[in-house]
From TrEMBL:
Organism field: Rotaria magnacalcarata
InterPro entries in alphabetical order: Chondroitin_lyas, Gal_mutarotase_sf_dom, Lyase_8, Lyase_8_central_dom
Family statement: Belongs to the polysaccharide lyase 8 family.
SUPFAM superfamilies the record matches: Chondroitin AC/alginate lyase, Galactose mutarotase-like
Entry's Gene Ontology cellular component terms: extracellular region
Residue ranges of domain Polysaccharide lyase family 8 central in the record: 166-224
Family matches, as Gene3D superfamilies: Chondroitin AC/alginate lyase (1.50.10.100)
Stated name of the protein: Polysaccharide lyase family 8 central domain-containing protein
Gene Ontology terms for molecular function: carbohydrate binding; carbon-oxygen lyase activity, acting on polysaccharides
Pfam families in the cross-refs: Lyase_8
GO BP term, example: carbohydrate metabolic process
Length: 247
């Protein structure tokens, strides 16, 4: 999941966000979303949270033409809180432990100081369902997503312990490398999957609004010199764009 859109896509994100905001009813539900759906593979209700993420991107991106626009801010927070209050679950464990935690921790990171106490509390609660330390998937995309969720939550709450835990677990199974392009289809994620499964996007892409705080946290970690130099460069740009791949 990409936290902030690129400069090439921000215009489309803004247009979509405006449309989604106008499509909300008086209770901040999407007028065209099926909230009773229980689909195991494609869950229609999840669309609500995907739209919240798009609205949040438009609301918070530094180059957005509607950054901090009052009407969009009201609709975005209202729609986010609809999900947090209802806390929809799906019969498929993947949505509950990975899909939804990933979609709610992104807004937590994007909101920065504009997050409410309730939003922090509820998003943190939902994100802890992605408890890889209790139900470690071993390797593959599920583990990467779970680590990503913990990283987003830890960055947003300045939790050094969580960041260090992600770093240790990632180092035990993954190779972290800086890339600006997608993985090739021939790069497989784990030994069990020889079908060329690949991450279609960089799984860690964080445009930080308080890079100084994050730099302070990461420098506490045991980076080797090349990694430390990498992070210094990243924070100077206020952009984290890492790809995590296994194998």
């Amino acid at each position: 999941m990409i936290i902030w859109p690129t400069m090439n896509t921000i215009f489309d994100i803004v247009q979509a966000a405006i449309s989604y905001n106008e499509n909300l009813d008086s209770s901040c539900y999407g007028k065209d979303i099926n909230y009773a759906d229980r689909g195991l593979a494609n869950w229609a209700t999840e669309e609500h949270l995907k739209r919240v993420n798009t609205m949040m991107q438009a609301l918070t991106h530094p180059n957005s033409s509607v950054r901090n626009e009052p009407r969009l801010a009201i609709g975005t927070h209202c729609a986010l809180n609809v999900w947090l209050v209802r806390d929809w679950l799906n019969p498929n464990w993947w949505f509950n432990q990975i899909g939804i935690p990933l979609l709610v921790t992104g807004p937590l990171l994007m909101l920065g100081d504009n997050v409410t106490n309730f939003e922090v509390q509820k998003i943190t609660e939902i994100s802890f369902r992605s408890d890889w330390w209790e139900h470690d998937p071993g390797t593959g995309a599920n583990l990467i997503w779970m680590l990503q969720i913990e990283l987003y939550r830890s960055l947003a709450t300045n939790n050094r312990t969580g960041i260090e835990q992600v770093h240790r677990r990632a180092n035990s199974t993954t190779a972290i490398k800086m890339q600006s392009i997608r993985t090739q289809p021939t790069e497989c994620i784990n030994d069990e999957n020889q079908q060329g499964e690949h991450l279609s996007q960089a799984v860690l892409n964080i445009y930080t609004t308080s890079a100084t705080d994050y730099r302070e946290i990461f420098l506490l970690l045991d980076w080797n010199p090349s990694m430390e130099s990498l992070w210094n460069m990243i924070f100077q740009l206020n952009l984290v764009n890492l790809e995590v791949s296994i194998g």
